[in-house]
Amino acid sequence: MALNLDLESYLTPIKLATAALVVSAIALTRRRDPYEDIPTVGSSNPIWSYIDGFRFLSAAPHQKEGIFRIPTPIGWIVVLAGTKHIDELRTKRGEELSASAAMRQVTSGDYTFGAEIFDKPYNVPLVRTKLTRYIGAFFDNTRDEVMLTCDELLPSETDSNWKAVSTHSVCQLITGRAANRSYITDPSIYRDPGYLRVMMSFAKSAIQGGTILRFFPDFVKPIIAPIVTNVPASINTATRYLSKTIESRMKNYEKYGSDYPEKEDDMLSWFIDLVDQEDRNLRHLIMCILHVNAAAINTTSMSMYAALNALASHPEYIEPLREEIQSVVADYGWSKVSMGRMQKLDSFLMEAMRFCPPTVLTSPRLAMVDYVFSNGIRLPKDALVAVPTIARHMDDEVFPNAKTFDGFRFCKPQSATDDRGDSVNRAGTSASSKLTTLSSDYLLFGLGEHACPGRFFAANLIKLTISHMLMTYDIKLDPTCPPSGRYVTADFQPSPKDVLLFRKKETV
């Protein structure tokens, strides 16, 4: 039987498949780049563009206004430069440009901080409203914890000997203890070194691990996450410290409701009252405490670190600051009110943090929709956008002589105003001289409705700590070990070798 081969019938499907592949390849190469409207800063070379991008972010800007993108190993970041664009970002609501979604993406939050923290961010309204209202009520306890921690870590006897102290470690411990005294009122917990270690390390591990996780596809992240972060270990350790207290309080809540005899008035109780019934469980409440510590300890301690290094580097400000503190306390005592009256201290802290912000990029937002800026540039959905902190803070058009440290820059009288009603050099009295002020120029606490909800609590703690140290200790640089912290990619990293010299101040 003869076998008839219709070669064309076999070749036709192959030809069609080949043609389809060719057409698909051409289509892919010609597919519109969603970022094509946005210029890349610096070199177009893939390697040099990384260097140029971060050189821009960590130095005074060459481009005063504009929108551009910089490459990172985990994708493009769109950077907004100039007042016009920063103001536009400030006014946008989360439905268009979301801060929470940006944090969730940047930190691989579902696998680090926990999806439930982003789905139901109970900590935000608690910190923004109730904790802020309680600053005055908590003031004496906060001051007591600052003083006790300083007594343990810094020289306790008045003599001529200076003691070298790890700057960042001191700042972390003071912040951790003082903040947690408001979070959970049991001193056997908030003063325990093991508890403090897990609270201090959780944020760093989650953020670093989250960055690594972004290199992996979603389906393997649950497997990789326990390897590249210590989040599971942190949860287990926190459970060991908190389970007994949380379970006891939940039993009281179930028995008496939100008002029961001898109820503790702290953040843990507030969480138990606030969360939905399905979230009123041990793991979720522990994640709430871990997350509120992560938000507080890292940035607050970094700001203290910057302030102490600035004091030691510019000792000419120490006596004027002491005089102001002494005068204000004589009139108002040690109180929340007195903290608000220390304008020179406020200004000095602002200047210290202007020079050394925690990150070179701030106010990250994720585009929830395709968004068109007022200048016509299109931001594609799922794009990450941020503002350059140091470039803005070191701009002479925003802060005259920006590279010169001027500790009282923000408490000088205003001389003129611009078309927004702000002082020309953005440094004046009243609201503009407050550490917690939000503006398009001073970017420490972010922008708009998504600004740091705990900034008032943090500012109070920073001012309280620095004012106590100024009135209790002499501080100076160690000439053999100048501060050597630096920015690693976008975040400031203190050197573990950084020390300052302290001695107990002589009383007059």
Automatic annotation (TrEMBL):
Q: Does the keyword Heme apply?
A: yes
The UniProt record lists the keyword Oxidoreductase: yes
Q: Which protein family is named in the record?
A: Belongs to the cytochrome P450 family.
Q: Cite the PANTHER family for this sequence.
A: CYTOCHROME P450 (PTHR46206)
Q: Which positions bind heme?
A: C452
Q: What is this protein called?
A: Cytochrome P450
Cofactor list: heme
Q: Which UniProt keywords apply?
A: Heme, Iron, Metal-binding, Monooxygenase, Oxidoreductase
Organism whose genome encodes this protein: Clathrus columnatus
Q: What molecular functions are annotated in GO for this chain?
A: heme binding; iron ion binding; monooxygenase activity; oxidoreductase activity, acting on paired donors, with incorporation or reduction of molecular oxygen
State the Gene3D superfamilies in the record.
Answer: Cytochrome P450
